[in-house]
Design a protein that fits this description.
The protein contains five helices and no strands. It has helices at residues 2-19, 25-35, 43-50, 54-65, 69-72. Helix 2 packs across helix 3. The radius of gyration is 12 Å and the shape is globular.
């Protein structure tokens, strides 16, 4: 089961890399959250992948999704 999850994660990453350049940073953050749900992720990790500060991501994420980072996860 773990191998299947790893393969699907790798395929998902490849597909999203081709379109992630056109995403805004909140969409990029949501992509990284959803593709790493099985891992222990933090706001700092996701902010680094979205190329913004954790504080800015937290505020923009709540405004965009209506849910705070922790609640979204």
């Amino acid at each position: 089961m773990n191998q299947l999850l790893e393969v699907s994660h790798a395929l998902f990453e490849l597909m999203m890399k081709s379109i992630s350049g056109n995403m805004d940073f909140v969409a990029r953050a949501r992509f990284h959250i959803e593709s790493n749900l099985l891992n222990n992720i933090t706001l700092d990790d996701i902010a680094a992948r979205a190329f913004v500060s954790p504080c800015y991501l937290s505020r923009a994420f709540k405004k965009s999704t209506g849910a705070g980072f922790s609640n979204y996860i």
